[in-house]
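Page 37, continued from 36.
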């Protein structure tokens, strides 16, 4: 698993892994992204390689090369993706990933103070019968009308818990429905436009902050809607002071990464405006 994957995702994996007798190996980032050669060396005898695209720093990983490195080591490439980036970034299945995972808060759902959200998982056909939960298939009824039925549900969840792929389930149907409606409303062109808006506003915010004296932590890396800047002091203090002015400026990276105590992770989504960016700059420079 790459070090540039979301810290909370990494912690969940580390929590579950011992129960299955698995060892978790973390591949460090190099200047904000992951070296595929290091991934290939670490992936020898590994079950899978988990990486995030865009990664936790907002930087774009060399995803096709990471997936290729995993596949060459006979490990399953697992991409943790932001669904709202897929209008402008390649789909994980197109560059060799066996699984794509993520969460859909950004697709039609509100923050809800960090939860609940809905997660998603997509897999190649050879993994279908090993997936948790239920698989819904499309068919036709006696009148020839389209309908949907359960085509697979692992009974171990009910009668053989020690072999179950998903022992504890929650129902996030309303949230998933909101995501479905939102993505259906957007369509392929709308998803592309959202992605382009995020990239454009993110670039604008990064330039405005740099003009105000806040240097990017990873200046040579391409980003999607998030980026890291140095604020010249402890980032936690910068967050506290900006929030006192009614602006939450970002996430203090020093909470999870050594040497980045002065680094702030800023996110700019399609819901923001140039005026919001100006307010952010003002809050951080006041």
């Amino acid at each position: 698993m790459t070090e540039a994957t979301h810290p909370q995702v990494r912690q969940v994996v580390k929590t579950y892994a011992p129960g299955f007798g698995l060892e978790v190996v973390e591949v460090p980032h190099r200047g904000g992204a992951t070296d595929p050669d290091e991934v290939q060396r670490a992936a020898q005898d590994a079950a899978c390689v988990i990486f995030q695209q865009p990664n936790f720093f907002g930087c774009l990983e060399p995803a096709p090369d990471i997936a290729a490195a995993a596949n060459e080591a006979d490990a399953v490439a697992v991409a943790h993706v932001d669904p709202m980036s897929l209008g402008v970034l390649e789909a994980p299945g197109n560059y060799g990933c066996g699984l794509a995972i993520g969460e859909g808060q950004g697709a039609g759902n509100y923050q809800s103070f960090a939860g609940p959200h809905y997660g998603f998982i997509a897999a190649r056909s050879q993994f279908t019968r090993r997936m948790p939960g239920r698989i819904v298939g499309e068919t036709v009824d006696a009148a020839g009308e389209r309908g949907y039925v359960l085509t697979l549900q692992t009974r171990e969840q009910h009668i053989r818990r020690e072999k179950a792929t998903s022992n504890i389930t929650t129902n996030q149907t309303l949230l998933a429905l909101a995501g479905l409606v939102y993505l259906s409303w957007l369509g392929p062109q709308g998803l592309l436009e959202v992605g382009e808006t995020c990239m454009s506003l993110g670039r604008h915010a990064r330039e405005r902050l740099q003009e105000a004296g806040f240097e990017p932590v990873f200046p040579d890396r391409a980003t999607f809607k998030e980026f890291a800047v140095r604020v010249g002091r402890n980032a936690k203090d910068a967050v506290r002071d900006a929030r006192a002015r009614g602006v939450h400026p970002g996430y203090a990276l020093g909470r999870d990464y050594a040497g980045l105590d002065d680094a702030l992770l800023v996110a700019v989504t399609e819901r923001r405006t140039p005026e919001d960016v100006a307010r952010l700059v003002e809050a951080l420079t006041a």
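The first helix runs from residue 7 to 16. Flag for discussion at group meeting. The two ends are 39 Å apart (CA to CA).
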